[in-house]
Amino acid sequence: MSGLLKSGDLLPIGDLAARTGLSVSAIRFYEARGLVRSLRSAGGQRRFLRADIRRLSFILIAQQMGLTIEEIGGLLRSLPAERTPTLKDWDVISRAFRKTLDERIATLQRLRSKLDECIGCGCLSLKKCQLYNPEDRVARHGAGPRLVFGDPSESR
Question: How far is 26 from 11, CA to CA, in rounded Å?
Fold first, then answer.
């Protein structure tokens, strides 16, 4: 272990699990994916920085918001691994996370609106439905539900 760290700065994996509400196996999973890093005691036991409580809490929140492990890892890469992240370090992640959340919120709002307009109206008529796409004009924007993704509607 680093000589700069005091023993109170490090937590055994069981204590980290108790503090975060995660199982030990979940923490090992995140460690294997590079989202947290452990140090080893003289006896080879995993020890984590106290700051990993916040890091794991962020992971749980980000997963709840639908981010993938890869997306979360991309955000966490900007944090220093060798020291406790500062408020400024977390601010960088906060801005990137906010952008991702804003995009997801906009997509969900469009989806809710389209569902209300189309399915909610009950007409079930493609001639009236705002999602109607004559001659498959929206296809040139790509596969999938382009109107819900926010592509300009050419079918109205």
Answer: 16
- For residue 142, count CB atoms less than 10 angstroms from its CB and return exposed for 0-12, middle for 13-18, buried for 19 or more: exposed
pTM of the model: 0.68
48 three-class SS = strand
Residues 94-103 have pLDDT tens digits of 888 898 889 8
C-alpha distances out from residue 140 to 34, 107, 131, 153, Å: 39, 20, 15, 12
- CA 102, CA 2: separation in Å to the nearest integer? 40
- Summarize pLDDT for 129-139 with one digit per residue, the tens: 555 555 566 66
Q: Strands 10-12 and 39-40: what pairing?
A: unpaired
